[in-house]
Write a structure and sequence with these properties.
Number of helices: 7
Order of helices and strands: HHEHEEHEEHHEEH
Strand order of the largest sheet: 2-4-5-7-6
Structural class: alpha+beta
Distance between the termini: 49 Å
Radius of gyration: 18 Å
Length: 227
Amino acid sequence: MAKEVDGVFVVAHELKSPLALTRQLALSIEPEDIDSVKFAKEKIISTTERAMRQVNDLTKVARLEDGLFTLEPVSVRGVCDDVARELRYLYRENHKSLREKYTNRSKLATANREMLYSVIYNFCSNSLRYSDEETRSELSVRDRGDKIEVSVRDFGPALPVNIWKELKHGWILEPTSIAMRPGSSGLGLYIASKFARFMNGEVSAIRHRDGTSFILRLPISKQASLF
């Protein structure tokens, strides 16, 4: 019961953050200053879109057992391209870059496209948020045995050892606060874990001296193996 209460607290705290930021941005607007209006508008739009995405994902998590979502062959590279295309503008505006590196021979994974998109988007947006200026994040896709592995390398604060150990099991059981990575990182990893388990996959992480690689592994589609 205590862990459940802690999880609810983490969700409430992390969803409260974008609301507080939006309020702060709205109060900072100087109507006569065109630059401040433009800056606040862009930040409010990106902040609210991120919050809405999280709420939508949490709604999906609550209904995973309702039989509403299906698994099918999905082009992993195609989903990665779509995520990179959506986030490229934000990377550029923050003086950062996202590089795609695809070496997988197996093109299709058994997945739910919306969930796969959400997991990759979460990893990439975290990389954008926690990396320093002028750093380059890398979105990679490779074969790993009978799985397709998607990884996103960032240069943010170190991932705490307890979170890293929990991810070694392939998922996170409850929303967890990550002190070094405030914002959506803990909640996003929980959502990614739930989606990965539904897709018969797993999430994990590699701790580097100068950042973290977040990883999603999904089973190769049997339809792909027939070819």
